[in-house]
Design brief:
Blueprint (H helix, E strand, L loop, with lengths): L13 H6 L24 H15 L11 H12 L1 H7 L40 H6 L36 E2 L7 H10 L6 E3 L12 E4 L2 E10 L11 E6 L3 E6 H10 L4 E4 L18 E10 L7 H5 L4 E6 L3 H4 L14 E10 L3 H11 L9 E2 L5 E2 L4 E2 L3 H12 L6 E4 L4 E4 L2
Antiparallel strand pairs: 1-6, 2-7, 3-4, 3-7, 4-5, 5-6, 8-9, 8-10, 9-13, 11-12, 14-15
Helix pairs in contact: 3-4, 10-11
């Protein structure tokens, strides 16, 4: 039985099948499905409205130096530099975020396909940071298909005072500046002499109590710790009282001070000691903080291995103590640190406004070749290595201290044959 009265071509596609006449009524009653409405996933407008809300609350744009605001700042930069995003949200800019600071919309460039005028050469620009990427014009449209929802910030915990930059800690008048005024004047008086070394700030650990710096053209002094760091962190970050020579002070986190010193290309650490200005022009005031003692000891040891050094007066211990030295050494005869023998205090230097431990480390480094390198046996029969003991005279030890403090130590070296310091040739 024929189903058709006329021959037909074989259908080669679904479209061809549905386009044929339905002679047998097989598709009668079938209603074509309507196309589903496409749901828009464009989040560019809601994301921009978050920026508007931020500006209305804080009366400023987000700051990329503040961790909690960095993603918002980058998002705003994207709206300003990408013309297709800017066009979508311009009508919602009620606070002028895309105003004078926005990058103008890029006009359509004429096609150079059939033009005799060659296109302007493209200047390549080195990309070294995320900021460079966001600031790029994306001439090839490589970022055009990216879903704008990636610009939506994920809610984060509000920043604590530890996250705030140094600008947040505002200065205020220093009510007891009279205690520090003469100190600043005296330092200014010797700032360009050999009594002071100006060193580039190089480590966060240098931002410590007793240190003085040149920051943004002003002397500033780290007076004391106002609040210890109680956070569970490997890096300490206490809040410091910092006094400036213009009579103001600021409560700065240690890392904020360090960050400001890093940012300022002209910042310097002022390396000096209040005790040993040769003309005694630097006086100790109520504002100066005693921070410990550098001491030089002689030993009454009877150990045969040390007899020669002891008899020639070239056996001294150089150390640091934050308490009275006599109190520290009263039990020396029972302590291997002091060779289990009575000791004599040969010299001591009381330190103000500097780190005595760092001072001690400098002395030990300079006298490294003179350090005792031997193993002794304690009264309990246990072997030990004497620490902080050197084969030099007390006069040499004191001179090393003086040269470090007056800033001339770099001009001298140890003569390992005679055991004294000599000027470099």
């Amino acid at each position: 039985m024929k189903l058709r009265s006329t021959p037909r071509d074989t259908a080669t596609s679904l479209d061809a099948i549905f386009d044929e006449e339905d002679d047998l009524g097989l598709l009668s009653g079938v209603i074509p499905l309507k196309k589903k409405a496409t749901t828009s996933t464009d989040q560019s407008v809601p994301a921009f409205l978050e920026l508007v809300a931020f500006y209305e609350v804080h009366k400023r744009e987000p700051d990329e130096d503040i961790p909690a605001e960095k993603s918002l700042a980058w998002r705003l930069k994207g709206y300003r530099t990408r013309s297709e995003l800017r066009a979508k949200v311009l009508e919602y800019d009620s606070v002028g975020l895309l105003g004078d600071t926005a990058v103008p919309l890029t006009p359509c460039e004429p096609s150079h396909k059939n033009s005799a005028v060659a296109p302007a050469p493209v200047t390549e620009r080195e990309v070294t940071s995320l900021d460079d990427i966001f600031a790029d014009d994306d001439d090839l449209g490589l970022l055009g298909g990216i879903d704008a929802s990636i610009l939506t910030a994920t809610p984060v915990t509000p920043p604590t005072d530890k996250d705030m930059p140094d600008e947040i800690a505002s200065r205020k008048p220093c009510e007891d500046f009279y205690l520090y005024e003469k100190m600043f004047q005296d330092v200014q008086g010797v700032l360009n002499t050999k009594a002071v070394m100006l060193e580039r700030f190089s480590s966060e650990s240098e931002a410590a109590v007793g240190q003085m710096f040149i920051l943004r053209g002003q002397l500033c002094y780290v007076d004391r710790i106002l609040k210890e760091d109680t956070a569970d962190s490997k890096r300490d970050n206490p809040r410091l009282r910092v006094i400036f020579e213009n009579g103001t002070e600021a409560d700065l986190l240690k890392r904020s001070l360090a960050r400001a010193l890093y940012k300022d290309p002209h910042s310097r650490r002022v390396n000096f000691d209040l005790n040993l200005f040769s003309d005694q022009s630097f006086t100790i005031s109520q504002g100066d903080k005693p921070t410990g003692f550098i001491y030089i000891l002689g030993s009454e040891t009877t150990a045969p291995a040390l007899a020669s050094l002891k008899n020639t007066g070239k056996l001294v211990k150089i150390g640091y103590s934050s308490q009275d030295v006599q109190e520290r050494i009263k039990n020396a005869h029972t302590d291997p640190t002091y060779l289990e023998a009575p000791v004599r205090l040969l010299a001591q230097i009381e330190c103000f406004n500097l780190n005595p431990q760092k001072f001690e480390n400098l002395i030990h480094a300079f006298l490294y070749q003179q350090r005792l390198n031997m193993t002794l046996t304690s009264a309990s029969g246990k072997p030990y290595h004497p620490e902080e003991w050197f084969a030099v005279s007390v006069e040499t030890a004191v001179e090393v201290c003086n040269r470090i403090i007056d800033g001339t130590i770099t001009k001298y070296r140890m003569d390992n044959t005679t055991g004294v310091i000599v000027e470099k040739l």
